[in-house]
Design brief:
The complex is a heterotetramer, with 2 copies of chain A and 2 copies of chain B.
Chain A: E1 11-14, H1 19-31, E2 35-39, E3 47-48, E4 53-56, H2 59-66, E5 70-73, H3 77-89, E6 94-97, H4 104-114, E7 120-122, E8 128-131, E9 135-138, E10 147-154, H5 158-169, E11 174-179, H6 190-198, E12 205-211, H7 216-227, E13 232-237, H8 248-255, H9 261-270, E14 274-275, H10 282-285
Parallel strand pairs in A: 1-2, 1-5, 2-4, 5-6, 6-7, 10-11, 10-12, 12-13, 13-14
Antiparallel strand pairs in A: 3-4, 8-9, 8-11
Chain B: H1 5-14, E1 22-25, H2 28-38, E2 42-46, E3 59-62, H3 65-75, E4 79-80, E5 83-84, E6 88-92, E7 96-107, E8 112-118, H4 125-131, E9 136-141, H5 149-158, H6 166-182, E10 185-196, E11 201-203, E12 206-210, H7 219-222, H8 232-239, E13 243-246, E14 251-255, H9 258-270, E15 277-280, H10 287-298, E16 305-312, H11 317-330, E17 337-343, H12 346-352, E18 359-360, H13 364-379
Parallel strand pairs in B: 14-16, 16-17, 17-18
Antiparallel strand pairs in B: 1-6, 2-3, 2-6, 4-5, 7-8, 7-10, 8-9, 10-11, 10-12, 13-15
Classes of the chains: A alpha/beta, B alpha+beta.
Chain lengths: 289, 380, 380, 289
């Protein structure tokens, strides 16, 4: 089976009556995702998507009435932190936040709260999750995916699409693709998702798509060498990028030389990970590992 | 958004963090006047947002108002690392006994704020951190609880601040933390924080970076944005909310998504070319935004070829195509465009561009190879 | 410390919580003038810190300035539950469509702040809570995170506030929570919070209680303390930081520690007597404090006997004895003192009082029995 | 053995150079308590109590240098919340806070933090703990105690002394006496301490001393009837007290009729607890249960 989502997922969409939320809700529904509810405060009682999905005023009511067990958030950045907390407070175990532009200070507070609850947050600034052909939660274009046994975890959006497209061209399918989000503070890191893939019978191999900045790829490399039995292919974007505009001396001291493309690639290679030079090289490398 | 030293110090001062007496000068005459007011040796500090300003001659100690005028007239209008110096901060010279490093920023891994301090501050702090990591002390702050006095006191003990200054150091820590949180900063740094020979703590330099995503909460800071030093390309990019960084190569890149933009630059380099810029048009860009992005690249004289790599998701290929069509109509340019469009409304986009004189590619690799070989031909 | 309605509303107003137009009057003339200003029906509300003020005639609706003057002249100077009315709040009469209850206080069990709301507010709210608990809605607030908008919105849904008022209700909730935390309140309550016929939310009454332990952070509130209504005994107790509550019995009790003071009152009652007060001298009381406590009891005409029960820990028995000795020297009183001293410096204390004319007891039970029988003899 | 503290306890005293801290440190030392360190910021390097106890600037250093595993706090109320957090941050598993007058708002924040750490906080506004003859942590006068098998848990100070004194007069000794503190927000409630007594081989019977206000005695009664096999005697102060100055309607709604002496006594009796009418009745009742 896929990880995190499947055909049993009862999905709620926060911000379903907004432009983006509504458009992508339609896409998810066409894909076959089991959308049970939408939430927009003040629009409770409406029905959307051709009368197929009821809208509620609050997550609490939506959960009570529909048994939603996952949510995807499309609300504007000023309200998104509150939306995450509302979902966590209502006991939803999987929260996927697509919204980008949430202030770091807000996310620090949100994370401090939800890390103590039994909640899995993906994102923010994530393209979401797709588990072909069972369910799609987020904005990953469904046309570039097909069912298979390769797990993908990524910090990027379109770069991930590029990789999936290249895989599909080569006839390779995906078990689940998880976009963990491109923001500095995110709910779940590479390691958590890798460990899900490690335990997923459908997944044979894993692709990790990282980029410069932070230390998450380095820590993922340590995790892979200690805990992963399944082969992993890596790709790190940003080798040609100018040195990061560092966060003063403090940023430099925290990173301590870590965070560059070189450092990440080296760490992954040391962990026995094959690292591709560009996205379209991945389908060529995959059969060899 | 990074604040200037003088802006950071203004804020420090509002939060009772001691700074040297001083004011901003835009002319040599003002520099002289301020030095007269201070009535003693002063330091002239060029207000440019680049590192290594001191080593580049942007910080000068002078002894008299006349000397201040003279030195100011030399520095003002010069360029430091290509940035023109338009303003000088004139401050009383402080007699220094010890230079401390003190800063705070986001600890991405722990999801907390991290305070960092060292008894040996100053310009070489990164070198110290690398060679003698035991001299660097760190305290993690629970974002829900905030900085507690005992944490600041522990840090004071760690970096061996004299006891008689503990109270001042704790108050200053609290203030800097308040600056950091009140302003939605991702960095607040005092380097050096000096102990004067008169046993006072004084912030000799200050650096604050504001979280761009939180700027909407701080309109007063937006008003202070320093746009005088931007290039026309940067200013255009900011106007259209394009993420743009100029580089030294000759292949202009227009891509949707930061990760894909970097990967596109990487493959150009991998194939032997040099990207002229990083440019991310973001998600769901309009044709106007695409046209603006192309304008920026076409006005960069180093650009010999343009590579457009679009993977449509939220972004629609037909909208991008319209932006390209418009640009081609507006500009009479010889610069070749290599285009690769995939994803949402790909067919419609290709249709729009069917009659244009463009080089198309099906894969990113093919696009990169074509762009690189064109750029090499044109530079030859 | 409990604030008056007018003080609470001043604070509400500073926090953008809507209140009726109005002002405070100390004389009938002022009441008339304010009513003229308001230019319509007004409500006169006696500013006394007791419950059930309305039912006791302390709230009156009047239609004209002359009527306001007339009614004010009757209420001012009267007593409501023994408290003299010195000030009236004169407010425009609001046309009410619905009365809501909305309050927040400390949830001791969970260690959080609890918001409580009900669609049926007003004076009978406690009755509603008892008879129809399903009409009361609660939200717990994480003290580190504070009130979040979704929580206020959930509450608005629960008590079925019309959608067009959600935004106002959320803003008002945020404001009341800010009042609560900024002022170190242990209670902030709006009852009733009304929806007017014009579809506005208005706080018709307000109650704020400040944590006495946090008053040092709010000197501005201390200045506002209403001391005009205190009895001489209460005022004396406050001056010496004694915890004193007057009761209806005739046995004065002086004890160290609140729990022991209550247990002492309990045993008096258990043995058939009636305590005249609760009085806790706290820990480590000085002889001056003890003397002040005795003065308070000796000036209460209902007191026929005084029971002193001291279990010395931080409190020293000799210091207590000195206070008693001083009091006996200052006052020529016939009231018998029953004394029981145990603990720190017990021997020294007993030595000091050896020559005084006092009734001593070894146990609390014995002390209580003696005090009760004396009080019965003296009242007979 | 006793609960919470014993002769192995390595005690630290925060605020040891203040008047109260210093006096009571001397008392604890005379009692035989193993005091290993004192903390007063700015006085690090001094030695107090006749040169027997070293003073440190911070709890962190004190723990590192002496292995202190319990602390008792005497610092003034404005600094006491910080002192608790400092101790918890340094990993001290038992924190006893004697200080009274800490604002409720501060304690709410402190409690929210330490409840997530592996820390036991007793107090604030507690007389402390005494485990005769092994150790005394706090201000309970040692003269009124003797070793025995009765556990005492109480919200009060001097009232507890009164009970212990009456027990001693009757020749009855104490295993451990724990003052949980008289403030609205305290680290540990009756239930936690009762459960420790239930598991303590030295303790045969337990005395619970409560007072009006709050609901902790009612919840303790429920705990006793569900989980306690050892007999419990109760005493509730405040039967003759005037009705509590309630916290507005909100306070009344929260308490919902609970919190009075009647309610607490009834709850305890329903749980099979003998309830004394006054402190000196307890030694008479004790042999009968």
């Amino acid at each position: 089976m896929s990880i995190l989502i499947d055909s049993e997922t009862r999905l709620m969409i926060q911000g379903i009556t907004g432009n983006e939320g509504n458009f992508h809700a339609g896409q998810m529904l066409s894909y076959g995702t089991n959308i049970v509810a939408g939430v927009t405060p003040g629009k409770g009682g409406d029905w959307v998507l051709g009368g197929k999905v009821p809208v509620f005023d609050s997550v609490k009511t939506a959960v009570e009435m529909t048994g939603a067990n996952a949510t995807v958030i499309f609300v504007p950045s000023r309200f998104a932190a509150d939306a995450v907390l509302e979902a966590a407070d209502a006991g939803i175990p999987l929260i996927v936040c697509i919204t980008e532009g949430i202030p770091v200070k807000e996310m620090l507070r949100v994370k401090a709260v939800i890390d103590r609850q039994n909640v899995m947050l993906i994102g923010p600034n994530s393209p979401g999750i797709i588990a072909p052909p069972y369910a799609k939660v987020g904005i990953i274009p469904s046309t570039i995916t097909q069912k298979g046994s390769v797990g993908i975890v990524s910090r990027s959006g379109t770069l991930t699409y590029e990789v999936m497209y290249a895989l599909k061209q080569a006839g390779i399918g995906t078990s689940t693709c998880v976009g963990i989000g491109g923001d500095p503070i995110i709910g779940n890191n590479f390691r958590n998702i890798l460990s899900h893939f490690e335990g997923d019978p459908q997944t044979d191999k894993v692709i990790l798509i990282g980029e410069i900045g932070g230390q998450d790829e380095e820590r993922a490399a340590a995790f892979i060498s200690e805990h992963m039995t399944k082969p992993v292919i890596g790709f790190i974007a940003g080798q040609a990028a100018p040195p990061n505009k560092r966060m003063g001396h403090a940023g430099a001291i925290i990173e301590g030389g870590v965070g560059t493309a070189e450092s990440k690639i080296k760490a992954l290679k040391n962990a026995g990970v094959q690292v591709a030079n560009y996205p379209e090289e991945i389908p060529d490398l995959l059969p060899k590992i | 958004m990074r604040l200037h030293e003088y802006q950071s110090k203004d804020i420090f001062s509002n939060y009772q963090i001691p700074i040297p007496r001083g004011r901003l000068a835009s002319t040599p005459e003002e520099a002289k006047l301020i030095t007269e007011e201070i009535n003693g040796p002063v330091v002239l500090k060029a207000q440019v947002l680049v590192g290594g300003r001191g080593k580049a001659g942007g910080i000068r100690l002078v002894k008299s108002p006349d000397e201040a005028e003279d030195v100011a007239s030399k520095i003002l209008g010069e360029r430091i690392k290509d940035i023109p110096v338009r303003r000088l901060l004139i401050e009383e010279a402080v007699s220094i006994q010890q230079e401390i490093y003190f800063g705070m920023t986001v600890d991405r891994e722990k999801g907390e704020t991290l305070l960092i301090a060292s008894a040996e501050g100053g310009v070489d702090i990164e070198e110290i951190a690398r060679l003698s990591p035991e001299k660097i002390f760190r305290v993690n702050i629970n974002p829900l609880l905030g900085l507690r006095d005992f944490q600041a006191r522990n840090l004071a003990t760690d970096i061996e601040i004299p006891r008689e200054l503990w109270r001042s150091f704790i108050a200053l820590s609290r203030s800097l933390y308040n600056v950091y949180t009140d302003l939605d900063a991702t960095l607040a740094e005092i380097n050096p924080l000096v102990i004067t020979t008169g046993k006072r703590l004084v912030a000799l330099d200050g650096k604050i970076i504001i979280d761009d995503n939180a700027l909407f909460r701080h309109p007063e800071l937006l008003d202070r944005r320093d746009i005088t030093i931007e290039s026309p390309q940067e200013s255009e990019a900011r106007k259209f909310c394009l993420s743009y960084i100029k580089l030294d190569g000759n292949i202009g890149c227009l891509v949707n998504g930061a990760g894909l933009a970097m990967a596109t630059m990487d493959i150009i380099q991998h194939k032997g070319g040099q990207p002229a810029n990083f440019l991310d048009i973001g998600g769901g860009a309009s044709s106007e935004k695409v046209a603006a992005a192309l304008r920026i690249m076409l006005t960069d004289k180093q650009v010999k070829t343009i590579l457009i790599n679009i993977f449509g998701g939220i972004t629609r290929c037909d909208e991008v195509a319209l932006g390209i069509q418009q640009t081609l109509a507006d500009f009479d340019t010889n610069i070749p465009f290599v285009i690769r469009l995939v994803g949402t409304n790909e067919a419609e986009g290709k249709q729009i561009l069917a009659d244009s004189n463009l080089i198309t590619a099906d894969s990113l690799e093919e696009a990169a190879e074509k762009a690189v070989s064109l750029s090499q031909e044109l530079s030859a």
